[in-house]
Amino acid sequence: DDLDLGGHAHFMLKEIHEQPAAAAAVIAGRIDERFGTTRLGGLNLTPRELRAFKRVKILGCGSAYYVGQMGAQMIEDLARIPADAEAASEFRYRNPIIEADTLYIAVSQSGETADTAFAVQEVQRKGGYVLGVVNVVGSTIARAVDGGVYIHAGPEVAVASTKALTNMGIAFAMLAVQLGRVRDLSVADGKRILAGLQAIPGQIAQVLADAEPAKAIAAELIKGDSAFYIGRTRGYPVAREGAQKLKEISYIHAEAYQASELKHGPLALIDEQMPTVAIIPDDELADRNLAAGEQVLARKGPLVVIAHPGVDVSALKVPTIRVPKNEPELDPILLTIPTQVIAYYAALALGLDVDKPRNLAKSVTVE
Ligand code: AGP
């Protein structure tokens, strides 16, 4: 009802705006300034045990899987352990090899997603150790795992997940720091990431305050039946999640591509009817990402950009949303926020049921 909506038109918008507070909640009490590390109390692993893992495998479904991909990149960057993410819905069916020196992590907002819960069982049956990154306290996955991190996002009602995903990203960053600090991550680098984490709540508020161009961008996207989201390396999971959000609530087909792969096929689809959303972080690939944007424009494809302030997009002359820069490892968390707002305004402009999209349930408890 109106009371629960807290003055917002939809739960999704309410939950988008709860993100600064939710982000602060997942960090609170878990930072150890002195030693440049995090204190995640529920891992049930000693530093020695934490250090013994040789690989990390993250399992989740849908958007949780895409955030898992961000998490795997953070873990590789900060802890220098090979890490990857896989759709939990596929993992359990392919007779996966379970290794005692791999750390498995199940990520789920609801903690009730059947595919993810079964993946946890499959790992445990074969002797693997599984951590949970879960929102709902006492949920099936939270109870099944060997240890874990609650993400403290608070109740999420809208089918399209927003604040839970942001908090999952932050939880992965904190886990990556803790894994890193029992390995080769220096105190100084640990402190650098901690400072970046503490800046996130305020920066999310800034993104939301500056998100006005999202309405015009949404208006552009709803003209077509289909859209591309492009990004590279750290920008790629952002593109995947952005495309997912648009699909879920606006029913516009959207596909994420590595910008580097455009020329290997999908460029053939670019024309006046096919808009592209380019994610352009201020990193060593910015020039290449800008060049990909130019290729889209050269084929008359409408282009919109989500970029850091340091990226010079002036030559493109296209609608742009600016996102504050953080530490490179943490950038995907903030770059994702405008994609939520764009999807929201697209669904709103199309008159669709933003909070309860057709054919979808908040938690998928069947296989
Ligand atoms: C997110 O917007 C989607 N509704 C969906 O992909 C979701 O993330 C997925 O079903 C996993 O749900 P969970 O986090 O509750 O396990």
TrEMBL record:
<keyword id="KW-0963">Cytoplasm</keyword>
<dbReference type="GO" id="GO:0006487">
    <property type="term" value="P:protein N-linked glycosylation"/>
</dbReference>
<keyword id="KW-0677">Repeat</keyword>
<dbReference type="GO" id="GO:0004360">
    <property type="term" value="F:glutamine-fructose-6-phosphate transaminase (isomerizing) activity"/>
</dbReference>
<dbReference type="GO" id="GO:0097367">
    <property type="term" value="F:carbohydrate derivative binding"/>
</dbReference>
<keyword id="KW-0315">Glutamine amidotransferase</keyword>
<dbReference type="GO" id="GO:0005829">
    <property type="term" value="C:cytosol"/>
</dbReference>
<dbReference type="GO" id="GO:0006047">
    <property type="term" value="P:UDP-N-acetylglucosamine metabolic process"/>
</dbReference>
<feature type="domain" description="SIS">
    <location>
        <begin position="217"/>
        <end position="357"/>
    </location>
</feature>
<comment type="subunit">
    <text>Homodimer.</text>
</comment>
<keyword id="KW-0032">Aminotransferase</keyword>
<feature type="active site" description="For Fru-6P isomerization activity">
    <location>
        <position position="362"/>
    </location>
</feature>
<feature type="domain" description="SIS">
    <location>
        <begin position="46"/>
        <end position="185"/>
    </location>
</feature>
<protein>
    <recommendedName>
        <fullName>Glutamine--fructose-6-phosphate aminotransferase [isomerizing]</fullName>
        <ecNumber>2.6.1.16</ecNumber>
    </recommendedName>
</protein>
<comment type="function">
    <text>Catalyzes the first step in hexosamine metabolism, converting fructose-6P into glucosamine-6P using glutamine as a nitrogen source.</text>
</comment>
<dbReference type="GO" id="GO:0006002">
    <property type="term" value="P:fructose 6-phosphate metabolic process"/>
</dbReference>
<keyword id="KW-0808">Transferase</keyword>
<dbReference type="GO" id="GO:0005975">
    <property type="term" value="P:carbohydrate metabolic process"/>
</dbReference>
